[in-house]
Each structure stands twice: as C-alpha cells, then as structure tokens.
C-alpha cells in the first residue's frame, strides 16, 4: 500500500544527518529539533500555535481535555472513520454522538450533523477523511449558531486546503478552534515511529494544552491540572523537519497518481471513482478509494490477494456496530451511507513513489477482473 523505503532512499542523506545530530546532542526529549519542527509547521500551516505530542489519538484526547467538558457532554463525530475519535470521547466519559457521512465526499453529512445537535452538544469533530477537506464553511456556521467547539481531525489530510465561498483558502486543521494530526509512518507526513500534533490560533488555549501534554505542569513540579505525558521525541521531530520541506511535493505526487487511476478507471461503469469536492488542493489523497457493489468488492479483494496487489478496506465496520461502542442510542437507519460504504469501498495502493507502470498494471487487472 505504501513504499516507505523508496521515499527514504530519496532523502536518506538528510534524514541520516538529522538523526545523527540528535544522537550527538543527546537532547532526546524536547530537544531543539522539536522546537524547530514546531516553528516550521506553524509557518507551513499559517497557524499561531502547533503543540507536538506523541500520536494523533493523544492529540484528539488532549484537545478534548482542554475544553473543560463535563461527563455526559455530547461530542458529535462521524460513523465512518478510524476508531480514535470515538475512543477518546468514550475514555473521557463524554457521550459520543455518531452521524452519517456523504456518499461522495466520505465526510460528515451536514444535515445529519445539524439534526444531531442538542443542548448538551459541546464539540463537533469532523474528520477530513482520505485527504478530502470536509465542508468547514458549513460546519463553522453551525458551530457558531449553536455555540459549539470544533476540533478538526486532519490526521489524513495534512496540507489540504479548504476554499471558502469568498475565495479565501485555509489549511485544514487551522479552521476550527482546534485541529489535530498524526505522523504515523503511512500518513501524508509520516515519521519513522509515532507522532502527532495539535493546532490552534487561540493563544490562551495553546498555553493550557502545552501544560496538559506535560503532566499539567506550568511551573516545574507544580501540577495545576490533570495532564498526560505526550511528547513528540526529538529524533522523530528531526526526521519530520526534513520531510516537511517535501510535503507539498509528496501531496502533489499523490494527486498525480490519483488522477492517473481515475483516468484509467473512469470509463468502467462498475466502479465509482473518488470525487474531488472543491478545488484541486482540497484533496491530498491519503487514500484512493473506489466503490463497487458488495459481492464484487469482496471478490476483487480476493483477486488482488492472488495477484499480489496490496489493498485496504477502510473501513469494514461502521463505528456504531463496533462491539466497544454499540449503544441503544444508535439507530442503524440513521447510517445508510456509512453502512453502504463499509460494504463497497476498497482502497488502492497510494504513496509518493507510485509510477505509471504500477498504476497501469493495477488498473488493467481491475478492468480484466470486472469483464
Ligand atoms: C491515523 C488516524 C488517527 C490516529 O493517529 P495515531 O497517530 O495512529 O494515533 C486519528 N484519526 C484518523 C482519521 C486517523 O487516520
């Protein structure tokens, strides 16, 4: 699905030097590379504060911890995503409210979102799934109307831009009150281990979050609030600082690969290819996800396996049906699109090193299979 070795080969010298510099300095925790990466990411995103942390799941948890929520407060998120979001909501004794997604964008459905809002709703967590920016303009309007916080989960979409109707563009993750991301190795900006970050333009909130990631300490050994230990380690920060310079180039390679896939698959009536909703920089193709009818999807997956073609099924089970999160509050009828997508999606190999021959090979196999 990804070619991390190929990508490393092209930046080997810079990465090796960055790692060696950290080892020579022995500043393994909160070394200068962490601050440098933080500053460079702030510039790249055009956001006032980046707070690095240990992973994308922690980034979501810490964001929720910073908002003075009470047990039972409702947090709205999507039914069709990785489990991190609902996991941290539940861990903090908040009430997850799941809503359906749009069939074309794979992102939060705005009507379902509005009808899920109650007096107890305190937070909305939209996920920019597969690299496609969610409709932040409509989400922010609703959040303002009902006075609700927005935490954007940009784990799969770092570098994507959302374009407002007035033409203004902003990087996803910097539009809501808080944004989060993950540097898991296969993400668009991947570390060589775990990593994550939190973004906010609210300086007061940023100060609070910097304490939460560090045991609730604002002065050494003075613990003002209950925090966690969640740091981006210096070696990962040094690697990310090298790779950040290539993020736009990497995202561009993904977009080129996506348009080649689409060019070859668009004529096939049995396949629904992913749409780009908005202008071309609103999608950074973390995944290239096609849909086809249920029986065919599972057969195609088997065919891929027998032809040594990697694939992913993101995601096979809606969150409302997961054992850990099942609840009488959820009505299966409310999740028509998620239910349908879980049965019909399949993601093709997508990374920065994909070449035309590989894409041609994969598409020819798919077309042959569907004949
Ligand atoms: C990867 C991912 C996360 C979690 O990130 P980790 O760094 O693995 O904890 C959260 N949300 C989404 C949408 C993701 O894709």
Question: What are the defining features of this structure?
Answer:
7-stranded mixed beta sheet, Aspartate Aminotransferase, domain 2, about 375 residues, single chain, alpha/beta, 2 domains, Aspartate Aminotransferase, domain 1, two-stranded antiparallel ribbon, 13 strands, binds pyridoxal-5'-phosphate, about 15% strand
Counting structural domains, the number is 2
Q: Compute the gyration radius: what is it?
A: 21 Å
Q: Helical stretch count?
A: 12
The amount of helix comes to 40-55%
Q: What global shape is seen?
A: globular
**Low-confidence spans:** none
Largest sheet: 7 strands, mixed
Find the count of extended strands (DSSP E, 2+ residues): 13
In spatial order, strands of the major sheet run 1-9-8-5-4-2-3
Give the names of the bound compounds: pyridoxal-5'-phosphate
**CATH architecture assignment name of the largest domain:** 3-Layer(aba) Sandwich
CATH names the topology of the largest domain as Aspartate Aminotransferase, domain 2
Which structural class do the helices and strands define? alpha/beta
CATH top level assignment of the largest domain: Alpha Beta
Distance from N terminus to C terminus (CA atoms, Å) equals 25 Å
